[in-house]
């Protein structure tokens, strides 16, 4: 209307421009918010990390399984009597565990800082070396220990085995032998047979001391050996075994003979 002043329109609030600026700043070229893109990228990275963790866990599990198959422990020999017989000479795993339970109280403390082997592995190490005639160096590498540690464990375990198992080797009474004499012996020899005597040699590693080298070297075998006198009853049990002797013929023969008759206590 004429004569009336035109009222100015209210100005837009300042926040509107700011909101537009914020929308512009938080939007990408494709119109997607920048915050959502970062979240998607983080989710993708998390998924990749999770897949990598799962892959590493699976690889670790497989490597542990392969390592456990090569470790000479209870799992390696359990439920496999053929392995037990090959490595230890004992016919079954149950018998191996029976021997272990018998000698455990006398074995040195295992799995210390110097000894990484369990009592079971100490026994297996000793029986393996006896059964397969393995050098100390090879046994040390097989059990991942030093040569000196392997040698010490072998000596300690063999002494414990001797203390516990040597009573099993004894000279039976004559009437006990004759009561269960196989008929083949009775037919051929009557009651005159008590034991079958034999002498055998074992190859040994070269000793460090010069005197021991001279005592054990065999000119006939061209190697270092130890001699043993052994006798077996007609039933097949070992009733006597002498100490090991060197290769000095006259001395060792007389010593073995004296030791045999002292231990046998033959009836005349």
Automatic annotation (TrEMBL):
Signal peptide: none annotated. Its cofactor is a divalent metal cation. Pfam families: DDE_Tnp_4, HTH_Tnp_4. Residues 197-246 form the DDE Tnp4 domain. One of its GO terms (molecular function) is metal ion binding. Residues 115-167 form the Transposase Helix-turn-helix domain. It comes from the Eukaryota. Keywords: Metal-binding. Residues 1-40 are annotated as: Disordered. The keyword RNA-binding does not apply. PANTHER family: SPINDLE AND KINETOCHORE ASSOCIATED COMPLEX SUBUNIT 3, THAP DOMAIN PROTEIN. This is Transposase Helix-turn-helix domain-containing protein. It comes from Cyprinus carpio. The lineage of its organism: Eukaryota, Metazoa, Chordata, Craniata, Vertebrata.
